[in-house]
Amino acid sequence: MTGFGNNTPEGFKLPEQTFSFDTLENHFLTPSDIGHASHNNAYTQTRYSSSDSVSGSGCESTSDTTVSATVTVRRNKPIPRKGHTKSRRGCYTCKRRRVKCSEKLPECDNCTRIGLICEYPEPPNPSALSPMILQQNPTSLAPVFTMEDLRFFHHFLIAAYPPLPVQAHSVWDNVAALSHGYDYLVHAMLGLAASHLSLVTSSPSSFCSSRSSGSQAALSHRIKSISLLNRSLSTPCSSPAEGDARFASILILAFQARCLPDGMTEFLSMIRLCSVIAGAGENSIFKDLAERGYLDSMRKMTAKTKAEELSRKGFMLEPEQERLVDGFLASLGRLRVRILETGRRNEDGEEEGMRILEGLEDAAKTTKVSPAEAFRELTSLYSHMIRASNADFAFITDPANYRAQILILHFFLMEHALGDLSLGAFRSRFGFRRKVCFAWLNEVTTRLPKTTEYAELIEWPLEFGQKFLIPRESI
């Protein structure tokens, strides 16, 4: 077999063509044109004849010269089958048939074309996926807040911040500026705002049953705040700002309890805790809210009403208000008898209860002369409960101590009634108390044993609730 080197005859061109089986069949090549090779399935020994003279440098030829060339024609490699992206949400029928599903709803194209039943798996539940998303980054400790939390934060700044200190909105502006550095403070603010928003937007019945939309969010933030605050209180305070953040959180949690349908005794516990933490330094923004400062705040709120009363000659209650006070005193008289009957069994605890009862009686009698002064006397009873020993405080706030629960209920109902008479322009900052008092009355009444004794003791609170706490449209 003769091959061509570098001395290719001038004018000769070697055809370079690669054939596949399909190409060969299409061109009808015969065995005389192509010799079959037995190696690598290649076709070789294609002969080309020329009768012309071929001349070239270093090459001699005649007219009878036969030129033979070897052309190797290789079979094309098979084109791989084009794959497709696996369908993760395709129908069951396409999965069984192992074909790509168009995922078209309600029926995919394949099932529609063939006439098969198209059935898709159930879509994943987004709420079930959200915990998985949070767990993908377990090392992240940054708190996650929602758009609803932004709404709560805004509501806190404009409406839900605690009414104390009096006329000190700037104090809570400063607290908001601190919140970015203390998670327990942020959650306390959001919890109070959620509770307050739920309180002012829900009906009395839905509020009492905690079915309002913001109640779950409020409790969630409250639990987080208390947990984080307890962790913080286990270490010494590192700066005045941290001290203010701690006190602000406790005060906010206390007023959130005042917005909860079952927060009556919890509110007292949080106020008591405020007095423990209230040893604020001279640079604290809450230095005026010590125990004495709270009473001074009450005097500021009632000063204008007191001046109006003094300007009148011969101040008198209206007949309905007079009957309200007389009914209150009669109810306290019945409660006194029951407390004295059992006083020997728990002398210390009952003694604290008697001090509160006597303070309520004095405030009720003062109401006939000056509701503003009566309101001041009533608020001073907070000091008795704050200074009580741990055993006495636990006794009067025990949910199973029904007489004490009724006594505390009398205190909050009277505070609400005197507040309406005495707070004047500040009344709007305490407007939520009517619905809260109704909820607390309902909660205590529901837990009382169904006996004649407790029916007599709760008679006046129920009458007061029907007349002054339940709005006309909900009766």
Features:
disordered N terminus, two-stranded antiparallel ribbon, two-stranded antiparallel sheet, 475 residues
Give a structural overview.
With 475 residues, this protein is mainly alpha-helical. The chain has 3 domains: 1-51 and 65-75, no CATH class; 147-277, no CATH class; 310-474, no CATH class. Helices cover 57% and strands 3% of the residues. The chain has 21 helices and 4 strands. It has helices spanning 21-27, 92-97, 109-114, 126-135, 147-160, 169-178, 183-201, 204-208, 215-233, 240-257, 264-277, 291-311, 319-342, 347-367, 371-379, 381-387, 390-396, 402-422, 433-447, 452-457, 459-469, and strands at residues 35-36, 43-44, 46-49, 66-69. The protein has a two-stranded antiparallel sheet. Strand 1 (35-36) and strand 2 form a beta hairpin. Helix 13 (319-342) packs antiparallel against helix 21 (459-469). Mean pLDDT is 76; it is low at 1-9, 11-68 and 127-140. InterPro entries: Zn2-C6_fun-type_DNA-bd_sf, Zn2-C6_fungal_TF, Zn2Cys6_DnaBD. One of its GO terms (molecular function) is DNA-binding transcription factor activity, RNA polymerase II-specific. Residues 49-67 have a biased composition (Low complexity). Residues 47-67 are annotated as: Disordered. Residues 90-120 form the Zn(2)-C6 fungal-type domain.
Short description:
The chain is mainly alpha-helical. The chain has 21 helices and four strands.
* Count of spatially separate domains: 3
Measured by DSSP, the beta-strand proportion falls in: under 5%
Strand order of the largest sheet: 1-2
What kind of sheet is the major sheet? 2 strands, antiparallel
Radius of gyration: 45 Å
Based on CA inertia axes, which overall geometry fits? elongated
As residue ranges, the low-confidence spans are: 1-9, 11-68, 127-140
First-last Cα distance: 117 Å
Which structural class is indicated by helix and strand composition? mainly alpha
Helix content: 55-70%
Count the DSSP helices.
21
Order of helices and strands: HEEEEHHHHHHHHHHHHHHHHHHHH
Overall mean pLDDT score?
Answer: 76
Q: How many beta-strand elements?
A: 4
